[in-house]
Amino acid sequence: KLFFTDYGNAAKVERCDMDGMNRTWIVESKIEQPTALALDLINKYVYWVDIYLDSVEVVDYQGRKRHTIIKGRQIRHFCGLAVFENYLYTFNSDNLSVLQINRYNGTDVQPLARLDNAKEIRVHQKRAQTAVRSHACEVDPYGMPGGCSHICLLSSSYKARTCRCRTGFILGSDGRSCK
Predict the structure, then answer these.
(1) Is the pLDDT of residue 89 over 70?
(2) Where does each LDL-receptor class B repeat begin and end (predicted)?
């Protein structure tokens, strides 16, 4: 799945398959300017920063179990969001600090370091990287991902795929080759 935020005409947090199909709103009310998004892949939670409402909130992948983690004026300066174990991590552009926030109660906020100019934050950890299993976009014997001549996108599961073409090409009737 792909998770993303939008604060155009109607602010929301959404998810869809990697090929853009099955687009679903998971948060569509009491949300104004969602800017940063982080996923808890193990427990299946979505966290986001709303810089207009000055809050960091969370829901499960279906948009249920919503609650506020932390609220306050400092939120409007948060850039990026990451989850690792019991904490959320963000960058405060006002005082140039990396912050650690307890994701269960929001009260334990600790500055960890100062950085001159960050816009995003990511945590990489071996346990969070899912084991690769065979999937529909694996390279075939001819070197084509999933049998697609240009781009292969996973669809509703790791066993399904959608072929797409680069700009200026159209997908052939076989659903795999680009012309």
Answers:
(1) yes
(2) 1-43, 44-87
Nearest to 19 by CA among 171, 159, 156, 165: 156
* Cβ(22)–Cβ(159) below 8 Å: no
What residues contact 85, with CB distance under 8 A and at least 6 apart?
none
Would you say residue 98 has pLDDT above 80? yes
Question: pLDDT tens, 120-141?
Answer: 778 877 766 666 668 888 888 8
Residue 10 pLDDT exceeds 70: yes
| C-alpha of 103 from chain center | 17
Residue with tokens 């963000």: 90
28 neighbors 10 (Cβ within 8 angstroms): yes
Q: How far apart are CA 168 and CA 146, in angstroms?
A: 21
Which DSSP helix (H) or strand (E) runs through 91? strand 87-92
Find the radius of gyration of the CA atoms of the chain. 19
Q: What b/e readout covers 45-55, taking b as 16+ CB neighbours within 10 angstroms?
A: bbbbbbbebbb
What rounded mean pLDDT belongs to the chain? Answer: 87
Domain annotation for the chain: domains and CATH numbers? 2-125 (2.120.10.30), 132-178 (2.10.25.10)
